[in-house]
Specification:
By secondary structure, the chain is mainly α. It has one domain (1-70). It has one helix and no strands. It has one helix at residues 3-96. It is rod-shaped, with a radius of gyration of 40 Å. The relative contact order is 0.04. The model has no long low-confidence stretch (mean pLDDT 95).
């Protein structure tokens, strides 16, 4: 074989092997990037769901605070009524003696 042609074929073969290695390396990096992107997307979805849940909770907060205040007042009224009943019961017991 012609030495000049032989040299070019060897060079092409060497460059082809180098190109294959470079492509293999880029393919691995691309796969790593795809995996990382998938994890990031899943994390973003989870965070978006969490944010939505927190937004809903915050939007309900005024109603919950109002309900809490109403129940607190009702509890105070119940305690006051119980005191009145206790007072009347003690008076009735004294009157019956």
């Amino acid at each position: 074989m012609n030495p000049f042609l032989q040299h070019h074929i060897e060079q092409m073969d060497k460059l082809t092997r180098q190109l294959k290695e470079i492509l293999r390396s880029y393919e691995e990096r691309l796969e790593d990037c795809r995996d990382k992107n998938k994890r990031n997307v899943e994390e973003n979805w989870a965070l978006a769901r969490q944010v939505k849940s927190l937004e809903e909770t915050v939007s309900r907060l005024p109603d919950l605070q109002e309900e809490n205040e109403r129940l607190r007042k009702k509890g105070e009224q119940s305690v006051e009524h119980a005191r009145q009943i206790l007072t009347l019961t003690k008076k009735l017991t004294r009157d019956m003696r």
